[in-house]
Amino acid sequence: MKKSPLGTILLIVFIDLIGFGMIIPILPLYAKNFAAAEWQIGFLLASYSFMQFLAAPVLGFLSDRFGRKPILLLSLLGSAVGYLIMANAHSLTTLFIARIIAGICGASVGTAAAYIADITPPENRSRRMGLIGAAFGVGFVLGPAIGGILSQLSTVAPFWFGALLAVLNAGAVVMFLPEPERHVLRSESRVPVGAEVSDRTLSGGIPVLVITYFVAIAAFAVVTMIYPQVLDRRFGLNQSQVNFVFVFLGLIGVLIQGGAIGRLAKRFGDYRLAAVGLILMAVSMAVMPFAHNIGSFLLFTVGLAAGNSLAQPTLTAMASRLAAATSQGRVIGTVQSAGSLGRVVGPSAGGFMLGWDRSGSPLVYGNTPFVVGGIVMGLAFLLSLALRTSAPSLSQTPAEIGQK
Q1: Using CA atoms, how far apart are residues 308 and 301, in angstroms rounded to an integer?
Q2: pLDDT in tens, 76-114
Q3: What is the DSSP secondary structure assignment for residue 397, as one 8-state letter?
Q4: pTM listed for this prediction
Q5: E strands of 124-228, at which residues?
Q6: At 196, which helix (H) or strand (E)?
Q7: Which fold has domain 6-179+199-399?
Q8: Alpha-carbon distance 189 to 68, whole Å?
Q9: pLDDT tens, 193-211?
């Protein structure tokens, strides 16, 4: 009996996300070394996601045609190059170039999700997509913690360590990760380009789901982008302390997506969990202006992180269940691309809105992005309600589907 490669692909994703998690809390403060304004920091963060937006469908298509393994390998090597450029940046322009390279290579998360879809039956995809979310969560636990320690040694030490992790990860892909058997069989059958796309790929609830995912990620990115600056100015936290707030966020994601999401999806269905997650995030953002101390801020952060942990993996699993078997990479890549576009719009808007709050007291710094983010997330919740009618099967639990 062949051992499942699930553990291997999850370990590769996990190591990759440790590197990613190290950079997120550090980058806004690192950019200030180059005299970056708030709106420039917003665009710097957005540049990564804009390139993901462009690259994710392309990498998904290439992985459908040529295999998941080579795309993952090339992406990890490219990530190492991006980290090295960041470590040696001498201007804001160089830092932008590094983030662009990193964004292109970071789009391979969709390929990893397609790999998992290849080796997972539809009824288990919410749980396994949740494991990717858990890998994100653990990456945000260990990444910021490691980054906080390394940044005390040197400002650029986290970037060098990220490059090392990416190279080691590429070696793990070469040595330990097999191409999914389902994809090998499709490649050997030499299915013509274009024959892979079915009506099922382009119809049903996928367009509604993609729009919902975009709006939700945009709203979430508005808030998460401003966390380092808000924690710095509003509560006086230093860089290491900011990193550990991200550790807190990651722990919540691990607890929910690492175990609870599978059981919850089987009991309530993907649709219901996604809707609950979206409305929970909307409420948590809307009440953030009332957080006048770090304790209440972290309490509202729990709601935000929990809602995100419920919504993101279930929306991805819903897309995977709707996609044809031969188009998993393309469809999941499109969903990831929509999320990346949201991460372009969100940080860019958040940077401008944060500038509007600069003239007020520290306790109102960040209130505008929080309120706007909550309103936009509420819109994502309303959009998600259409998924019940445009794709009724998505609101069913696996048990209900099995009764038919």
Answers
A1: 11
A2: 999 999 999 999 999 999 999 999 999 899 888 888 888
A3: -
A4: 0.70
A5: none
A6: none
A7: Growth Hormone; Chain: A; (1.20.1250)
A8: 17
A9: 443 444 444 445 788 888 9
